[in-house]
Predict the structure.
Amino acid sequence: MAIEIGQFTGSWEELVELLDVAFSAPWSEEQYTAERLVWERERSIVASEDGQLVGHTGTFSHLMTVPGGQLPVAGVTMVGVRATHRRRGILRDLMRRQLTDVHEAGREPLAALTASEPVIYPRFGYGLAAVYQEIAVPKASRGLRPVAGIDDVRIRYVDAREYLHRCADLRNKLAAERPGHFVHDERWREYAISNTVTIDTDNASKLRCVVAERDGELTGFAYYRTKRADKGYVDVQRVHAVDIASHAALWRYLLEPDLLSETHCEMLALDDPLLDLLLDPRAPNPVTRDGLWIRPVDVRRALAGRTYAQDIDVVLEVVDEFLPWNAGRWHLSGGPDGASCESVSRDADLTLDVRDLGAVYLGRPSLARLGRAGLVTEHRAGALAATSEAFSTSRLPFLDTGF
Ligand SMILES: CC(C)(COP(=O)(O)OP(=O)(O)OC[C@H]1O[C@@H](n2cnc3c(N)ncnc32)[C@H](O)[C@@H]1OP(=O)(O)O)[C@@H](O)C(=O)NCCC(=O)NCCS
């Protein structure tokens, strides 16, 4: 039977059945509810054979922070192919259809995803644009350097649901300053407090919320669970604060768990101030993980859609074997206030693969570093260093919400 690729018209239950098989594990009740809440049925693309669903890819409509602003981004999700149908090119066909649809709709110049297995997506033009650290701080090593004003911050336990909107508004404000974060609308606010995809909920408390306040004003919040085990720990889901005193006060609280011996955080930015404040730099024992993968779907609009750290005037030759409309030479000019990008036929200053353009798009890793790895070819002396500087950002890209 031929495999057909098309828009999904079936039920949520049919899709869950496929994903259960593809991911080799059933979803928990909480996960089922949370994923259902954010699922965008009209953006689901499926592969079917003789009426049976054999593959799926979905898209979330995100608004993501990029250097200098926020752009619509297609968040690729729930990718799976039935185990009986693997390695026949179904994922490839789904990816091509999805990226073509996104391109034709003309709204989202970028696609983004988090990967179950990082080797899968570079072949489709995705580059690793943001990493995060997983840390575990023993209670005995919780000491922090002094932080001015920390004792003026009050930490208060509140009901996560009651404070949902206040916390989410604060987070959205901060998310606008951090490349890689996307805006939490109503559905994603709910998702952030109910999703348990990456959480081991056995023997764990419900989600707890503490807020930081100064003079009665909300200045930060943290979501966490506590886990009783042989070596019990606090499992920190997220910490957001408007200033360093509130950030440190929240962490001071989270690092002092009664009856538990450690504090874990699965997703911490590599430049989180906590790492600079801990007296014992070895204490967090960090493990770096791949976070956000970025794919330029429309190179011209993607490059023109961000700002640059310094003036830039460069011709980039982009190699894109998967989406031919991106391949070619692009003249990018602009700076801190904005940029423009046009297709040109003149000689290129730099040549790079589209996946590497995706990798550097949010500001890290540097183009210079990829150049040292032999992944960028420089045709004009000095072009690599100057372009690399222009692409850099002061905040490292980081995604605080897996999807
Ligand atoms: C990953 C998955 C979607 C791949 O589907 P598929 O239809 O077998 O993939 P395709 O046949 O289209 O493969 C396309 C290419 O990717 C490669 N590939 C696919 N899955 C891979 C994997 N897990 N590891 C390494 N390479 C992989 C194939 O070898 C092929 O390579 P080629 O371009 O050199 O020929 C499928 O195996 C699956 O559902 N896995 C479990 C769920 C999962 O991991 N989903 C991804 C969520 S982020």
User: Anything to note?
Assistant: The chain has a mean pLDDT of 95. The first strand starts at residue 3 and ends at 7. The two ends are 33 Å apart (CA to CA).
